[in-house]
Amino acid sequence: LQIAPVPDDELRKNVESALLYDAATDSYELKTEAKDGAVTLSGTVQSYREKQLAVHVAKGVKGVKEVKDSITVKTKSDRPDSEIAAEVKRIITIDAWLAPNFITTEVKDGIVTLTGEVGSSAQHGRASLLAWTAGVKSVNTEGLRIEPWAGASGQRKDTIAIKGDPQTKQAVQDALVHDPRVFSFNPSVEVENGVVTLTGVVDNLKAKRAAEQDATNTVGVWRVKNLLKVRPAKPLADDKIAQNVKSAFLRDPIVDSYQIDAKAKHGVVTLTGTVDSYYKKAQADNIASLANGVVNVKNNLTVSYPAPVYYDIGYDPYWAHKPFYVYRDTYRPPYDFTWPYTSDAEVKDDIEYELFWSPFVDRDQIVVKVENGVATLTGMVYSWSEYRAATENAYEGGAWSVKNELKIKKEP
Fold it and tell me: Distance between CA 220 and CA 95 in Å, rounded?
């Protein structure tokens, strides 16, 4: 099947529309050019992560073959190397996915050099992204080696430097400051026994979801209560919101060919129609959540050919601003779905295989039992993020349902 290329002028307009559609990038002053499917972005933003966010949005537009990044990052003032180094070390230390004791940070003339070991390519990309703080000119990760042992929870638990609710609260606040979707809203953070409660107001749904993910990704946090309220700064009419969402579906190469209807009432978008996988159902939800004026999404899409896999597009370790946020009952295959026969022994082996290769859990600390397709996980993990990752691995291994009885061990 050969797909006709999108004309350059139409492609340029579509990318511009995508940047305006996204509630986080709509204020960026960027210029867009397109030639033979290659899109060039130029202009000025305030941080490297804003720059990466703009590139990420452009890459998601149907017909884009390449994004040439000519965006300039404008910093208010030069920062001393010692200040940059301290901030990079702090960001890596509070991140739940990285083991800071295995990563060395050096800064000279604004150039950050990371050396040491990480447990996977995913962690390598995440460390590189997190190092781009204000004042950084470039990040060198050539000396950051990928060693499977460096991702094991056995090592990671010993590197946790966040102990106590006050320290956890500060760590979460630091994480929120570095997310361009969230920082301007300054959510209120309270912590009690490792449980984070977020309160305050944001002006778009994606910011609410991103804040929850930022908190979940912080060391010392084992649960997040997201009480943030979505109150659009510039309320839009419901018919305009619905039209914007439907136009965004047409720009997306994953869901553009499906008949997805979007209706809005008081800012709540309801999606109806049919797609052929839970991945695409989740993608549609994510697209709708990006729109200005949307306060919530009700995803009533039907999946015509559900696969025996729990799809989650939420966590992308290369992209810190795509939150691990899904509605489990929405994306899990329905209970009336006829599951292809697979023996419990095979499902158990597949789950253990997923856990073995996961960079986010320690397989040796988890016991898997499967009965009639229902997986039960017991044992010990060291963070809420690891707890959730183990659940995802069990679904990816083919479990019909998962009983997660893992206990979270807190540092003394």
Answer: 9
Q: Please list the residues that pair with 223 across neighbouring strands.
A: 195
Residue with tokens 């499977």: 148
Helix (H) or strand (E) holding 375: strand 374-381
- List phi, psi (to 5°) of 335: -70, -20
Three-state DSSP at 387 gives: helix
> What DSSP string describes 221-248?
--EEEE-PEE--SS---HHHHHHHHHHH
> For residue 22, what is the DSSP state?
B
pLDDT, tens digit (0-9, with 9 covering 90-100), for 362-409: 778 899 999 988 899 999 887 777 888 888 888 878 888 889 999 887
* DSSP-derived 3-state class of residue 299: strand
Question: Rounded to an integer, what is the distance from CA 4 to the centroid of its chain?
Answer: 31
Nearest to 399 by CA among 343, 357, 360: 343
Q: How confident is the model at residue 162 (pLDDT cuts 50, 70, 90)?
A: low
CA distance 24 to 162: 30
Q: What is the pTM of this model?
A: 0.71
Residue 162 to residues 120, 386, 411, Cα–Cα distance (Å)? 23, 16, 9
Q: Which among 310, 277, 276, 305 is positioned nearest to 398, based on CA atoms? A: 310
Q: CB atoms < 10 A from the CB of 117, how many?
A: 21
Q: What is the pLDDT of residues 58-81, one digit of tens each?
A: 999 999 999 999 999 887 667 899
User: Six-digit token pair at 346?
Assistant: 């095979």
Measure the CA–CA gap between 392 and 399, rounded to whole angstroms.
Answer: 10
pLDDT digits (tens, 9 = 90+) for 257-276: 999 999 999 999 999 999 98
Q: Give the angle 305-248-315 at the CA atoms, nearest 5°.
A: 60
Q: Give the least confident one: 121-125, 169-173, 336-340.
A: 336-340
